Amino acid sequence: MVTVRGSFVGAALTAVLLLAPLTPVPAAAAPRDSAPGSAADSEAATTATAVKAAADWSAPLSTRGRWIVDADGDRFKLRSGNWHGASGTWNGSGSVDEDANHHAGENSGRTPLGLDRAPMAEIIAGFQEIGINSVRLPFSNEMVHDGVPVKDDAVAANPSLRGLTPLQVYDAVVRELTAAGLAVILNNHTNTTRWCCGVDGNERWNASRSAADWESDWLFMARRYKDNKRVVGADLYNEVRRNIWDDPNWGLGDDHDWFAASQRVGDRILTEANQDLLIIVEGINWTGIPIDGFAHERPTLEPVRRLSHTLVDSGKLVYSAHFYDYTGPNHSGATGTGETTDPRYRDFSPAELIAVLNRQAFFVTEEQDQHFTAPVWISEFGVGGREETGAKPRAWFENFVDQLIRTDADFAYWPLVGWHENRRGNGWALLHWDSAGHRMGVNDGDDWRAAAWNRLVRASGRTGQVAPVTEWSMLSPDHGDFVASRRMRALPDWDSGARKAVCPDGQRLLGLGHTGNRGLCSDVTAGALWAPAGGHEVVRDERHVTPDWASGYTKLQCPAGQFLTGYSVRGSAVSAALCAAAPAGRLGTAGRTVWFDRGDNRGSAPKGGDFASGHYKGQCATDEYAAGIAYTGRVGSARTPDALYCRKLA
């Protein structure tokens, strides 16, 4: 590769094209003797018994605050692993038929890895044995449309799969996993059926396909498994990252805006395809040029603090993040060209690692009553097994497992299945099969990860009933409509040409930003207020104003018995207020004016978080509802919100 000295473009091309893959690269394993019948076998048996009992759970899954729960309201912890292969293992050069041209020499044949070496039932029994209750199952968009049958060699140990297309094999795998009681999370891993994750044409959801085609594929997959209730989640896209020229972003409104794309397809899945699925949104994996002196970072979930998703169905959003020892918050994972002097995660002390992890992801679960509070699923982490002798990677794995246990986090190990020959090969997997079908597992007695793994899957944590929690939701009509209400989505456009924002059904508007168009919704104190048979009114004038609670200002006030559930804007200016009818006796009439045109006015201990970062904000108290918005059109004003009229709940 040619680098143009002093040229930004030349440096960018060199660094980006030589980014290390952001999923594990194995080293050769040193042969060791296994120890069947060891203490690890006893641990495995105990774990398998626990998993069998844990298979008795009720679908679908949803969320309550930071917890995932089943249909009975009991906590369901995602103790997961990744069964990769259907999304591709080909490295992108050379013949696809040659094993050497596949990641780690492991040719999946466009199917979940290992079907050539072991019967599916044996593989799934292995999953249960090591203590998982759920599987993240990657697929590619190309796989969805691939009509070429898989080769017989790819499914040699499963002859019933011969002659099937990759999608039909995927169907069979989903069917058998769920029949065994395991939950399945569909994961759109790549656009094309090849190994992820460098500069490979799979950097974004729309890198090699249009956004419209991506959305269409998701609707197809969500509908395809709608009747299988143990298919519980849609993991929207894997490791969104920079391509050669452009970064993804979180909220800019262009075709690289991962926040907007994931918000849109998540709502479409829930409203058009399968309302039972968890919608899983991974943070941004990489932006910038990995060269010292240039801006570069792994944002992960940090942007969520400033801009979070609000889906049409509260209780369906899960955030996710990936962590490996050889990457870092500002380190791409590259070695040689493209490597920077930034620390990798393995370089941090235990205390430093905790601080970094909390900043990048775990704050989403740890900080309660925020607009961003949600479960976080660490949907990829892993490390080399028998062949990994490095002190730092080993220490990182132990420390990371400690963090997962400490935070009672949901997790998914990468990967579950690998190949071995004479106990050598890709040591990252927890279960390996050789070409003769002999299995090598994490609990055989010679894998240093066994103690930490079993500590993780057997760790005590929250179980049983999780009580319903207060919901806090952000509205962000920054670049278009942000209607989180199913009821309003089903009705005609109530303010054509304006950008509209509406709280999810069951929540009421409590806060507004002076500029920036952001809003805050909640069901705090009152629960759902909108009467099932109640109507709504779009207010554009002062006909309902009483008393004059903002003299000299234009006021949009809800009529008696109604509360603010939404608003619309044109540019930055208020256009209309959306009011919803509450059941009789739920709303009081005593009110106060909350001004926020010259500073924040949210009370002494506001909940919900900073929903309009960098802007003045006003917020009603938790025992109030918003009944009106005031603004002014005088010279120097942009008709942005200046005050809220907050009234007491009855």
From TrEMBL:
First and last residue of the signal peptide: 1-29
Region of interest (Disordered), residue spans: 87-114
Entry-linked InterPro entries: GH, Glyco_hydro_5, Glyco_hydro_5_CS
GO-annotated biological processes: polysaccharide catabolic process
Highest taxon of source: Bacteria
A GO MF label: hydrolase activity, hydrolyzing O-glycosyl compounds
Domain Glycoside hydrolase family: 117-414
Entry keyword set: Glycosidase, Hydrolase, Signal
Pfam families with a match to the protein in the record: Cellulase (PF00150)
Protein family per UniProt: Belongs to the glycosyl hydrolase 5 (cellulase A) family.
Descriptive protein name: Cellulase family glycosylhydrolase
Origin species: Streptomyces liliifuscus
